[in-house]
């Protein structure tokens, strides 16, 4: 595999990023219904949402690229009182299990440390991701039963030093 470069998303690649996001969100989140996913793309997380976040410098979005191809991303969705909420992380299927996800987490943690963030929190409904987050130093802090889409929601946190 060629070298993986992790860098901040440039607005000039917004369309390329949005297509990556849609591709990953469509194939992942197997337990979410298609109507909910479509609502993400048109309402909640439309291309305008991402664009506005970049313009206002509110969404630190990091992308992983191999050559010219974007293969993954991570982003903090909300930052309040020293806590960053990791809203999204995604890696194309063909590039999973190659340490790209861990590298993206490490890069966003570095960004957090440089920007006064002392803790990262996240939630997932995907049971198979619990090991990935724990392997990367996140601690399961609770479970919200019967949450979104009637799924259990696993809440993780990681305190940064």
What do you see in this structure?
The protein has 161 residues and is α+β, with helices and mostly antiparallel strands. The chain has a single domain (4-159), classed as Gcn5-related N-acetyltransferase (GNAT) (Aminopeptidase, 3-Layer(aba) Sandwich), CATH 3.40.630.30. It contains five helices and seven strands, in the order E-H-H-H-E-E-E-H-E-H-E-E. The protein has helices spanning 14-27, 34-44, 47-55, 100-114, 130-135, and strands spanning 4-8, 61-66, 69-80, 83-91, 119-124, 139-144, 153-159. Strands 1-2-3-4-5-7-6 form a seven-stranded mixed β-sheet, sandwiched between helices. Strand 3 (69-80) and strand 4 form a beta hairpin. It is globular.
Summarize the main sheet.
7 strands, mixed
Tell me, rounded to a whole number, the average pLDDT.
93
Under CATH at level 1, the class stands as Alpha Beta
Overall geometric form: globular
Largest sheet: spatial strand order: 1-2-3-4-5-7-6
Number of helices: 5
User: What fraction, in percent, of the residue positions are helical?
Assistant: 25-40%
| CATH H-tier superfamily | Gcn5-related N-acetyltransferase (GNAT)
| Secondary structural class | alpha+beta
Approximately how much beta-strand content do the residues carry? 25-35%
CATH architecture: 3-Layer(aba) Sandwich
State the total count of DSSP E strands.
Answer: 7
Head-to-tail CA distance between termini: 32 Å
CATH fold name, please? Aminopeptidase
Low-confidence runs: none
